[in-house]
């Protein structure tokens, strides 16, 4: 299979409407602060449990089989913090932390299931990206502004994860579900 025929894939958790509404509220506040960049489209919000990269069809079929073997229980999660990831002192990503018992165990089980196909995650950070920053005039002021945005105490239940396909388009990524895996399988 040629490189161009490989599929860009990742394993992720999607969010219920209550989370999407809270992120929309936070993005509205964030838009008031002048910066060059792009908000994550609400329909693209997710928590990446494992990025697989460009995967051949045969490997993808093995991944699907291995992920079907992951046994996990439903879990209660919450939005717990907001902040930025910086590179060389420049804020690049605005994120919302996803906390709660079970998410780290699920990520570990996915790593275990895919051992031999992909490297283990070195540093899993349970977060969703809500904005990408290209430029901001006053870096410290922007970071302080983001950290002062208050998150509502949103709690939600997760009972599945998905193997996703990512196609990079001019207007941004387009995600589609390859297969969904439910708790208690």
Characterization of this structure:
The chain is of the alpha+beta class. The protein has helices at 17-31, 57-68, 103-113, 139-148; strands at 7-13, 36-39, 47-55, 75-87, 90-99, 127-135, 155-158, 160-169, 172-182. The chain is globular and about 50 Å long. The model has no long low-confidence stretch (mean pLDDT 92).
Query: Can you say what the CATH homologous superfamily is?
Result: Cyclic phosphodiesterase
Q: Span from first to last CA?
A: 32 Å
Number of helices: 4
CATH topology: Cyclic Phosphodiesterase, Chain: A
Taken together, the total number of domains comes to 1
Q: Spans with pLDDT under 50 lasting ≥5 residues? A: none
**Strand sequence of the main sheet, in spatial order?**
2-6-5-4-7
- Write the H/E string, N to C: EHEEHEEHEHEEE
Helix content: 25-40%
Number of strands: 9
How do the strands and helices of this protein lay out in sequence?
Layout: E1 7-13, H1 17-31, E2 36-39, E3 47-55, H2 57-68, E4 75-87, E5 90-99, H3 103-113, E6 127-135, H4 139-148, E7 155-158, E8 160-169, E9 172-182
Antiparallel strand pairs: 1-3, 1-8, 2-6, 4-5, 4-7, 5-6, 8-9
Give a short summary of the structure.
This protein has 185 residues and is of the alpha+beta class. The chain has 4 helices and 9 strands.
